[in-house]
Amino acid sequence: MSALPLGFLPVLVRREHASLAIKLLAPPVALGLATLLNLGLYLLMGRDPVAVFHAMLLEPFLSWASFSEVLLKMGPLLLIAQGLAIGFRAKVFNIGAEGQFILGAIFASAIPIWLPQATGQWIWPSMLVLGALGGALWASLTAFWRVRLNANEILVSLMLALVAAQVLNYLLLGPWKDPAGFNFPQSVMFQYDAMVPILIPGTRVNVSLLIACALSLAAWLFMQRSFAGYKLQVGGLAPRAAAYAGFNEGRAIWISFLIGGFAAGLAGAAEVAGPLGQLQRSISTGYGYAAIIVAYLGGLHPIGIIFSALLMAALYIGGDNAMVSANLPVAAVRVFQGSLLLAYLVAIAFVRYRLEWRHAAQGSAP
Length: 366
Fold this sequence. Notes:
By secondary structure, this protein is mainly alpha-helical. It has 13 helices and two strands; from the N terminus they run βαααααααααααααβ. The protein has a domain at about 75-300. Strands 1-2 form a two-stranded antiparallel sheet. α3 (about 65-90) packs across α8 (about 225-235), α3 runs antiparallel to α10 and α5 (about 125-150) packs antiparallel against α10 (about 250-275). The radius of gyration is 22 Å and the shape is globular. The two termini are about 30 Å apart.
């Protein structure tokens, strides 16, 4: 086996064109790489890697009861990821979707908490609308700071997510606390008309999954068939060209944050009006952060995000299974999610670039 001649260095060179096949291979390669890395980690932890693999990646699809729970988890992940991906393609990074999700849940909960005796089919749609507006309102704070004060949107949106969690704590430990709730930090249970209708009888899957699929179609039409979506994409790919063409950067930031906040708030409203049936502190389960992984794993494309949301939802359910059957700590499940994003970023780097060996005298590639 011949050694590499001295004086040669590896250089990443941008591909002129990446084939569709290579792009489609990136997510499964990332999943395989992340799985191998984590199975090695589980072996070092003294866990049976085969049992963990079976519980985490196979069990969610082996029974209808488990798969229905996957579909239930898929709804909020799909909603949030579709909203975030629009901004990410415009290079507007909304990292605070978790806070917008919480505010959506809070705004939606105001109706059944303030009107506990109200009845009628108008309640749950009104909750969804109010929740979406609440998420958009919270996101608009970051947009304002970014456009008017040139603040970093990553830091501002992330800090506002922490503020949103404290607002939730205040409400559930104060004015919205259920007086008959045995001192638990939760609101009263919502009335029947405040619950989103069940989509599949015999399961907890509700109409919010259909709403998420409809939003996915709307996201595809917006990004692929509208001039506003085209301007956002140009602004992300070529900011100077967009500025020369007269595209308004501030408007792109506002649109990105309002759409992302609207989708996250809608997901939060659907969560309290769906599987939870009340406002709880456990509403903050990390959906807003996991949706970032979903968006990128789906290639920031509405169709790809549907499949990545299904995968991430399966990891949520499979992680719960592995914690019970394989005695896996919850931190290990989160490590798997994070390593999946890391593996995808490595895979996508080799989609956009190829590795060449060059003589040191040639220098690095432009």
